[in-house]
């Protein structure tokens, strides 16, 4: 017998995390979860998430720096397979430009909120198996 559990226990509002280091670690965990997320019907949301993450990581977009990010660090593999790295590198900067002037703190809070709205990101999966004979 095998029991599978999905547990959803994530803070959707990053403002509830008072400590900056804890918020940074939480955001890093969410970034990793976004990279393995498979919400195929919400492709556009991943582009917005990448823009928030770029603003938090790099600050304002700078025209003279190109290419300025690695798509593999900000997008799940299925988007890169579907769209290609060239498409991602071409279209993501426009969203990043729109965030000009936004602080790293604010963009990380928006990243947390948006990432937690994906159905498979704020979940932890557990599997439990019964081993041995029952008496």
TrEMBL record:
What CDD domains does this protein's entry cite? FERM_B-lobe (cd14473)
Q: What is the lineage of its organism?
A: Eukaryota, Metazoa, Chordata, Craniata, Vertebrata
User: What Gene3D superfamilies does the record point to?
Assistant: 1.20.80.10
Q: Which PROSITE patterns match?
A: FERM_3
Q: Which GO terms describe its biological process?
A: positive regulation of hippo signaling
Pfam families attached to this UniProt entry: FERM_M (PF00373)
| Any one Gene Ontology cellular component term annotated for this protein | cytoplasmic side of apical plasma membrane
| This protein's name | FERM domain-containing protein
PANTHER family in the record, alphabetically? Answer: FERM DOMAIN (PROTEIN4.1-EZRIN-RADIXIN-MOESIN) FAMILY, FERM DOMAIN-CONTAINING PROTEIN 1
Tell me the ranges covered by the FERM domain, including all copies: 1-135
């Amino acid at each position: 017998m095998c029991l599978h559990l999905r547990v959803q226990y994530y803070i959707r509002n990053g403002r509830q995390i008072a400590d900056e280091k804890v918020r940074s670690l939480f955001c890093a965990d969410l970034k990793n979860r976004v990279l393995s997320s498979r919400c195929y019907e919400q492709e556009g949301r991943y582009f917005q998430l990448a823009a928030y993450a770029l603003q938090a990581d790099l600050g304002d977009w700078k025209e003279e720096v190109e290419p300025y990010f690695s798509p593999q660090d900000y997008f799940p593999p299925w988007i890169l397979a579907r769209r290609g790295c060239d498409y991602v590198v071409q279209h993501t900067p426009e969203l990043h430009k729109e965030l000009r002037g936004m602080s790293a703190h604010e963009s990380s809070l928006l990243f947390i909120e948006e990432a937690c709205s994906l159905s498979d990101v704020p979940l932890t999966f557990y599997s439990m198996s019964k081993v041995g004979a029952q008496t």
